Amino acid sequence: MSRFLRGRLAALLVGTFALVGLAALPAQAGTSGASGVNRYLSDVNLNGYCRNTFTPAGGPEATSVQSSGSASGWSCYANGTYTPLSITDACRYQFAELVSRGFLVTEDPNNTSVTDRSCFGVINTRLERGGMDLAGYCKSLQGGYTGAYNSGGNVDSWYCDGPADARLDLNSACKWQNQSYVASGYVLAAAYANYGAWNRIGCIAMA
């Protein structure tokens, strides 16, 4: 099967969840998480955090690796250097917009699994918004993109397919697909049960 056909199939698999809950109009979001509840947000993308935070200038992309030398059990690795990784810092990076609005975001306080780490946030509301039309999002961008494809079987390996392929920003795709919720003051972000759930990524609206 060609990469184009694989990409079309993958984008359709993700898009099958996109019809869930699209009919209702959003209520206006609240603005404070001070009285919220500590809720599950999503699994954390450690590889994306390492790549975007610890990749040296002109060097190879940093990756996340299990590391006994780190309190969290994980480090970012690049150019022979291991940098201990904070799961909470990775969660705050992944949900940066939520943090910028004053909401508390941390790693799962009860998580005992080294390999499966997740993010929690003290928020008032967490609404499931279904899946994403990744192909449609890519086509909406400038650059002549014709669709979306996944190259690695994980949530961090989605790309827009075009003359010059580009890594796909899942949070931006959620905002594009849920503009009425953005206008109502909600924070939109991608959510998934684990790093390998490449075809089961959904959007959540938080306030």
UniProtKB/TrEMBL annotation:
Signal peptide: 1-29
Keywords of this entry: Signal
Protein name, entry field: Phospholipase
